[in-house]
Specification:
Elements: H1 8-11, H2 31-89, H3 92-102, H4 127-137, H5 140-151, H6 154-163
Helix pairs in contact: 3-6
């Protein structure tokens, strides 16, 4: 008779086969890799610093522009107030008041007035002949009035009024 042999391989407890632990190798950069990585980090840091610097310059410039705009506004307001003050001094009544009261000027009689024709009123071609003829004919007063009317300067009109010539 044949008896089956027992096989102990199947009935035995399994042997602990510890799985082979793989050591995870730490990859270390080689000298060239470390050098290039540090250069890359420094480049990013430098770029960030440049961006921050230029941004701060833009902010400072904007602040200075705002300050200058405020100064322009203040100066324009001052200019407007000063031009209003100058306009008030340019009125005929004020000029006459200062001339009569402060400078103690008096209005002359019409016989005391001597009119001198300036070269501004006379054209270049009529400079010599018409000046002599107008003074001889007594038309100098009329031409002075028309000259003042043409120029329409407030100061000249006030002066002509002080002298007693009634112009426009």
């Amino acid at each position: 008779m044949v008896v089956a042999q027992e096989q102990y391989d199947h009935y035995s407890l399994p042997q602990d086969k510890s799985p082979s632990k793989r050591r995870i190798k730490e990859r270390r950069f080689s000298g060239k890799g470390k050098h290039s990585l540090s250069i890359l980090v420094l480049m990013f840091f430098g770029t960030g610093m440049l961006i921050a610097y230029y941004y701060s310059q833009v902010v400072v410039s904007g602040y200075e522009i705002a300050q200058l705009n405020n100064q322009i506004t203040v100066i324009q307001q001052e200019t407007d107030s000063l031009s209003g003050a100058v306009d008030s001094f340019d009125t005929l009544g004020r000029v006459e008041y200062i001339a009569v009261n402060k400078l103690k000027m008096v209005k002359p009689a019409s016989s005391d007035i001597v009119v001198v024709k300036s070269s501004l009123a006379v054209s270049a071609s009529q400079n010599n002949t018409s000046t002599d003829n107008n003074v001889k004919q007594g038309n100098a007063g009329q031409e002075a009035k028309s000259y003042v009317a043409e120029r329409s300067s407030k100061v000249l009109q006030a002066f002509v009024n002080l002298l007693g010539m009634k112009g426009s």
